[in-house]
Design goal:
- This protein is of the alpha/beta class.
- It has one domain (3-186, 224-252): NADP-dependent oxidoreductase domain (TIM Barrel, Alpha-Beta Barrel).
- The chain has ten helices and ten strands.
- Strands 3-4-5-6-7-8-9-10 form an eight-stranded parallel beta sheet. The chain has a two-stranded antiparallel sheet with strand order 1-2.
- The chain is globular and about 55 Å long.
- The two termini are 29 Å apart.
Length: 267
């Protein structure tokens, strides 16, 4: 598994992690992912998967980078602290590697939310702060509200069919040392070999490159994501088989020519 630096922290994380939104696969696919080097697991208090992750990391907690999120409905100072404690309990751990704001909510003052996040760092409960679904303006506001730490990641929708972040958010994050965590990187299965009812021109290009590389369509689509310098991907899979396939998206690289063909076909 290839590694990338998380923000500018010096901490290396796998470029393919394990997403758990709408996850119902139980413990074994998570354990297999960890075994294969996908040691970053992403969850949230609203996913109701923290308990399964806690079970999966028993005995290997120090090898796993756990990212979870506080709900955008719980961004008051005291609520953030309570939410973090709840996640610690569900995860069965005494620290969270990356604590993220799940989505921005202007009903709560950003300074109060970030004060709570920095309190968690000061208490040793959280190692790093991230956000999710933030645009450039929201990122700038969040960064300005911090006193002694930085935002290391922004988790957003990104895949071959959803490339809106390339206009300004992706360049901003790259310039400012913020890792982009791509969720739904396979577009809910629309970029995998299982969806072949309608193979449009762009999907035929994906198929062609799949044959050229000897990789599956899903592996090509994930590798395209991680070909971006500051992007890691967190696909979700409910099965051991698919988890193995997703992990196989790392350890090799599409050629520049193949990346350009995909860029053009899915533009």
């Amino acid at each position: 598994m290839e590694l990338k630096e998380l923000g500018e922290t010096g901490v290396m994380v796998p470029e393919i992690g394990l997403g758990t939104w709408r996850y119902r696969g139980g413990v074994e696919p998570l354990k297999k992912g960890i075994e294969l080097g996908a040691t970053l697991i992403d969850t949230a208090e609203g996913y109701y998967t923290e308990d399964a992750i806690g079970e999966a990391v028993k005995g290997v907690r120090e090898k796993v980078f756990i990212a979870t999120k506080v709900s955008g409905r719980h961004l008051g100072y005291d609520n953030v602290l309570r939410a973090a404690e709840g996640s610690l309990h569900e995860l069965g751990t005494d620290y969270i590697d990356l604590y993220q704001i799940h989505w921005p909510n202007s009903s709560y003052p950003m300074k109060e939310t970030m004060r709570a996040m920095e309190t968690l760092i000061n208490r040793g409960i959280v190692r790093f702060i991230g956000v999710s679904n933030f645009d450039v303006e929201e990122l700038e506001e969040a960064e300005a509200a911090l006193n002694h730490t930085t935002i290391v990641s922004n988790q957003v929708l990104y895949n071959l069919n959803d490339r809106g972040i390339e206009d300004d958010l992706l360049p901003y994050c790259e310039k400012n040392g913020i890792t982009v965590m791509a969720y739904t990187p396979l577009d809910d299965g629309n970029l995998t070999g299982s969806t072949r009812l309608l193979r449009s021109g762009k999907m035929k290009v994906l198929d062609e490159i799949s044959k050229e590389t000897g990789k599956t369509s899903a592996q090509v689509a994930l590798n395209w994501c991680t070909s971006r310098e500051n992007v890691i991907a967190i696909p979700k899979s409910n099965s051991i088989e698919r988890t193995i396939e997703n992990c196989g998206a790392s350890g090799w690289r599409l050629s520049d020519e193949q990346i350009n063909r995909l860029d053009e076909a899915f533009s």
